[in-house]
């Protein structure tokens, strides 16, 4: 059970870092197109799309990464307390 908890928390942590790097890359290279950019897009888009469908955009600002971080933190805390 400890291994499962460690594995799930590590996956969530990697996903949060991938979202953060995607955000930073969007500021530096907004149109992307490189392999790293495409890899990060493929990893993070399913979860961000889920929150993007729930939260409307406010002009040019996309709040889905912020909500995703918050929900992933809650899941991470829940897993840590469960196990």
Can you describe this structure?
It is built from three helices and no strands. It has one domain (2-82). The longest helix is centred in the first third of the chain and has 27 residues, at 2-28. With 83 residues, it is mostly helical. The radius of gyration is 14 Å and the shape is globular. The mean pLDDT is 92.
From N to C, what is the helix and strand string?
A: HHH
Q: Give the low-pLDDT segments.
A: none
Task: Profile the largest sheet.
Answer: none
Give the N-to-C terminal Cα separation. Answer: 7 Å
The chain-level mean pLDDT equals 92
Structural class: mainly alpha
Count of DSSP E strands? 0
- The percent range for helix content is over 70%
Task: List the domain count as a whole number.
Answer: 1
Q: What's the overall geometry?
A: globular
Give the count of helical stretches: 3
* Approximate strand percentage: under 5%
- Provide the gyration radius in Å: 14 Å
List strands and helices in order, with pairings:
Elements: H1 2-28, H2 35-54, H3 64-82
Any key phrases for this structure?
83 residues; mainly alpha; single chain; 3 helices; 80% helix; globular
Task: Put the structure in a nutshell.
By secondary structure, the protein is mostly helical. It has helices spanning 2-28, 35-54, 64-82. It starts with a helix and ends with a helix.
